[in-house]
Design goal:
With about 210 residues, the chain is of the alpha+beta class. It has one domain (about 25-210). The chain has 1 helix and 12 strands; from the N terminus they run αββββββββββββ. The protein has one helix at about 15-65, and strands at about 65, 70-75, 80-85, 90, 95-100, 110-115, 120-125, 130, 135-140, 145-155, 175-190, 200-210. The strands form 3 sheets. Strands 3, 5, 6, 7, 8 and 9 form a 6-stranded antiparallel sheet that branches. A 4-stranded antiparallel sheet has the order 4-10-11-12. A two-stranded antiparallel ribbon has the order 1-2. A hairpin with a 2-residue loop joins β7 (about 120-125) and β8.
């Protein structure tokens, strides 16, 4: 008695179609998963960047912007005098800092930080030489399309003598303690008109003292 052996070389057309269909489904599921992960990662990354840049901005105002390759800093902490600018009812939109002058050419130096068009900018005069155009402090110029400062308020943090004795005030009642409030937001999802864009926001409040 003889047995007939059949050879099964390769796949049938039905089997091939089934494999292709399953592969396509797996690829689509993977693509959706990667897309969701990327969106969540980007939202988290942009929000962390917003917080980091805002804190760096406040640190720059407090500790100073570095001149002469970072050897000299003009900021609130080492100011000779502070002046709140853009003031309405005791609350301003910026601060002008007069640094101590160690050189004759620095006697007219100053630096100011202020809010304009959703950006905290800086003007200055260093060694008697001014800036041609305001410098972007926060957000950076390349981030303006996604990050916006919605509120930047500077006020006298000790106007009533609640923290420091009023006897310590400078002539003309120039403040030595500033309260700085900063609100900002970052776009996490672009809205399709008429729906608005979606944002994540931060709100910081801190005190800065002139030593």
């Amino acid at each position: 008695m003889f047995m007939t052996l059949k050879r099964n070389d390769g796949l049938s057309l039905i089997e091939l179609i089934a494999v292709l269909a399953m592969s396509t489904i797996l690829i689509l599921i993977s693509a959706v998963g990667v897309s969701v992960f990327y969106k969540r990662y980007k939202i988290t990354s942009d929000f962390i960047a917003l917080q980091t840049e805002a804190m760096n901005c406040l640190q720059t105002i407090r500790n100073g912007y570095g001149f002469n390759r970072g050897e000299e800093f003009y900021g609130v902490a080492n100011a000779k005098e502070l002046e709140i600018i853009g003031t309405v009812w005791g609350v301003g939109t910026g601060v002008r800092i007069t640094p101590p002058s160690s050189k004759p050419q620095q006697r007219s130096d100053w630096v100011s930080f202020y809010l304009e068009d959703g950006v905290i900018r800086m003007d200055y005069m260093y060694n008697g030489i001014g800036l041609n155009s305001p410098k972007y402090i926060f957000p950076a110029r390349e981030d303006r399309d996604k990050i916006q400062v919605t509120r930047f308020v500077v006020s006298d943090g000790n106007s009533q003598g609640d923290i420091l004795s009023l006897d310590t005030f400078q002539p003309k009642d120039l403040p030595i303690l500033l309260r700085v409030e900063l609100d900002a937001r970052v776009v996490i999802r672009k809205g399709v008109r008429p729906a608005p864009d979606e944002y994540k926001t931060i709100s910081y409040s801190t005190y800065m003292v002139k030593k």
